[in-house]
Each structure stands twice: as structure tokens, then as C-alpha cells.
């Protein structure tokens, strides 16, 4: 009998305990981060295209059939290296004809010079008239000019013949040939048949908006721009191990796009960069003193209002409207509404009610390296 009574009492105690537990509310855990204040650099970021230090197009200067190609496409070539040979039969004939005309002109020059030498003493003795002397002198002067013209024609013929052999104007990397052996090329209306790029120092060109240009001019002088280093971010997201520098700014703003062309250069010692790559250009454009930063996850936008959820010393959470500045990396700059040292909640999808007690879990951090995309 006593055993049954003890069992009943124990059961009642357990039911009372369970009932009491159901009455006590569960306190949700919420990740919080402490608001800090510090100076942060602001970075501008643009997409640029790479160009060689020199990108030289190869165009034929004579017409004819391509007889030979003396390079490997995509390989390095040196200045003066033979690239293409164009049919030169007709050009050689022109050179020989010009050489023959020069020889004939020189022979005639010898003749008229001899005539002049005979006429001069006779004219001095009045055996011949001054008119005869003037005629001999004129023939000699005219023939000298004929020799000069024939020499120029020969030089031009030889130059044209030399043009049949196209050599590399600079050292660099040559591209894919647009003509093959047997193709006909001409100097009038012919597009470039190849391009050579010097890939030592590389140029990176990108455009900025007119508003950005005005902002940079207000905050940075020309001297500070010259000393400003430029980070280059490759297509796979990795940072190029060499820093660039500003080189030039175009003279005008494009009226059709409202943008301004800017160029940076990098030495490209590793020869990793090639012409035609698209890379990101990043540089420090400003610095915010005593900036208050919170992660983007801590700011909720409701139409035109931005809210944060502040956790007080009693671990109670309440919404608070804030004013935001620029977005830097994964953080917002808060211009009004928060103070350093306060805790804001990263609520995510949690259901939060004003005045609710929460269990703060300190987590997350503010970025030390930040950038502002333009």
C-alpha cells in the first residue's frame, strides 16, 4: 500500500515539473556583433583591358602573292626578324630597269661633260660664241639632274623590292597570321595581316564616370595620383603580384557615354599578362575618418528605411532606424543611429519581436580590408 502511494506522489511531482517547464519561455540565441569605430580606406574598382606597350599592326607595302612565312604563330619574335616574303619578280625587273637607266644617264653625263670641256677653251679664244658655251653648260647641268633622278628611281625600286620581305618592326609576341602562303595581298585597302605586341610593360585602360572624375580631382592632386599604386585582380579573382601605376588620363570626356579614359601601366616582369585580357583595377580613392561599420546582415531595408536590431545590456532586442552611407566590401557605413560599443544582431530569418529577450552569441567580425565598387 505504501509503495502505491509513493508511486502516485512521484508521478504527481513529475507532472508538476513538466508543467512548470512548459510555462518557462525559450530564449532564442542570436548572433551579435559589436559596433566599432575606425578609419577605413575606400577603394575604387573598375574593369580594364590590357594592351601591350606597343601593339604594332603588320601591313603589306607592296602587292603580290605570299611566297613564304618565316615565324611560328603566337611565338616571340625579335626586331628585324624576317616574317613574310611576297613575290618579287616584277619588283626585281623594275630594279634592273632603274639600274640600267642610271647607267645610261651616267654615260650621257660623261659625254656632255667632255663636250663642255672642249667648248670652254674655244669660247675663251673666241673660236666659239658664248651661245655655244651656254648650250654646252645647260646640257651638262640637265644631265646631272637626269643622273640624280635616275638614282632616285633606282633607290625607290630597291626600297619597293625590300618591302617584299616583311620584317618585325619591334620585339614581342606575334599573333595568328591572317594570310597564308599563296594568298594575294596589296597595299591599297589591305587590312593588317598580323599584329606584334611588346609584352614587357603592359597598359591597362579603363573608363571612369564624369562624377567619379570630379570627385577624384576634388580629393586627390595630380602628384598624389602619380604616387598611387594600383592593384590588379585577374579573371580568376587572384591578385596580380605586381602593382601598377597611373600613366595618363585622356584629354576629353566621351560625350556619347559621359566617361573618361584612364590608363595605368605595370612592368609585367612575369610576362603573365597578355593583350586583350579583362582585369579589375583597384586603387584607394578616399579615407573615411572614424567610420562606424556594421555587417550588411545587420541592416534590414524596409522600403526607404534601414533598420538595425540593437541588443541592450538586459539582452533585450529592439529595432532602431539608421542612416547608411556607402557600402564598403561586406559592410555598411552608418552615418547616424549607432554608437561604438553597441551590439547589433545578425537576425537573418529569425523571428524577432521588439523587447524580446535573447541570448546573444558574439560572432562575426568587421572587415579590415574593404573596397568600394564603382
What do you see in this structure?
The chain is an alpha+beta fold and 374 residues long. The protein is 29% helix and 39% strand. It is built from five helices and 20 strands. The protein has a six-stranded antiparallel barrel with strand order 2-9-12-11-10-13. Helix 2 packs antiparallel against helix 3. The N and C termini lie far apart (85 Å).
Q: What order do the helices and strands come in, and which of them pair?
A:
Layout: H1 2-23, E1 29-34, E2 36-58, E3 64-69, E4 76-77, E5 82-86, H2 89-124, H3 130-163, E6 165-167, E7 172-174, E8 184-185, E9 194-209, H4 210-219, H5 222-227, E10 229-233, E11 244-254, E12 259-266, E13 278-295, E14 300-302, E15 305-311, E16 316-328, E17 331-336, E18 343-345, E19 356-357, E20 359-362
Parallel strand pairs: 1-20
Antiparallel strand pairs: 1-18, 2-9, 2-13, 3-5, 3-8, 4-7, 5-6, 7-9, 9-12, 10-11, 10-13, 11-12, 13-17, 14-15, 15-16, 15-18, 16-17, 16-19
Helix pairs in contact: 2-3
Amino acid at each position: 500500500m505504501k509503495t502505491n502511494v509513493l508511486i502516485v506522489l512521484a508521478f504527481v511531482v513529475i507532472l508538476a515539473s513538466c508543467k512548470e517547464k512548459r510555462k518557462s519561455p525559450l530564449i532564442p540565441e542570436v548572433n551579435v556583433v559589436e559596433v566599432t569605430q575606425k578609419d577605413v580606406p575606400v577603394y575604387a574598382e573598375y574593369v580594364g583591358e590590357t594592351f601591350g606597350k606597343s601593339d604594332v599592326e603588320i601591313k603589306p607595302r607592296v602587292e603580290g602573292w605570299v611566297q613564304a612565312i618565316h615565324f611560328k604563330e603566337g611565338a616571340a619574335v625579335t626586331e628585324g626578324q624576317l616574317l613574310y616574303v611576297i613575290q618579287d619578280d616584277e619588283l626585281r625587273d623594275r630594279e634592273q630597269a632603274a639600274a640600267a637607266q642610271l647607267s645610261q644617264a651616267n654615260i650621257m653625263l660623261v659625254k656632255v661633260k667632255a663636250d663642255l670641256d672642249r667648248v670652254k677653251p674655244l669660247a675663251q679664244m673666241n673660236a666659239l660664241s658664248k651661245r655655244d658655251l651656254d648650250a654646252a653648260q645647260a646640257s651638262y647641268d640637265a644631265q646631272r639632274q637626269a643622273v640624280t633622278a635616275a638614282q632616285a628611281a633606282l633607290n625607290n625600286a630597291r626600297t619597293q623590292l625590300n618591302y617584299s620581305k616583311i620584317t618585325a618592326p619591334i620585339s614581342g609576341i606575334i599573333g595568328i597570321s591572317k594570310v597564308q602562303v599563296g594568298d594575294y595581298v596589296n597595299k591599297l585597302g589591305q587590312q593588317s595581316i598580323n599584329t606584334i605586341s611588346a609584352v614587357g610593360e603592359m597598359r591597362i585602360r579603363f573608363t571612369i564616370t564624369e562624377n567619379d572624375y570630379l570627385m577624384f580631382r576634388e580629393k586627390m592632386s595630380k602628384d598624389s595620383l602619380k604616387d598611387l599604386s594600383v592593384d590588379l585582380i585577374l579573371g580568376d579573382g587572384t591578385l596580380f603580384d605586381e602593382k601598377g601605376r597611373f600613366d595618363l588620363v585622356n584629354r576629353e570626356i566621351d560625350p556619347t557615354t559621359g566617361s573618361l579614359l584612364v590608363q595605368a601601366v605595370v612592368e609585367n616582369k612575369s610576362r603573365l599578362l597578355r593583350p586583350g585580357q579583362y582585369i579589375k583595377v583597384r586603387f584607394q580613392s578616399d579615407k573615411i575618418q572614424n567610420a562606424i561599420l556594421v555587417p550588411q546582415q545587420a541592416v534590414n531595408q524596409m522600403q526607404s528605411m534601414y533598420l538595425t536590431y540593437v541588443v541592450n545590456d538586459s539582452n533585450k532586442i529592439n529595432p532602431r532606424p539608421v542612416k547608411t552611407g556607402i557600402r564598403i566590401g561586406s559592410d555598411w557605413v552608418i552615418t547616424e543611429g549607432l554608437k561604438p560599443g553597441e551590439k547589433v544582431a545578425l537576425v537573418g530569418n529569425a523571428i524577432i519581436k521588439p523587447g524580446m529577450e535573447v541570448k546573444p552569441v558574439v560572432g562575426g567580425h568587421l572587415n579590415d580590408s574593404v573596397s568600394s565598387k564603382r
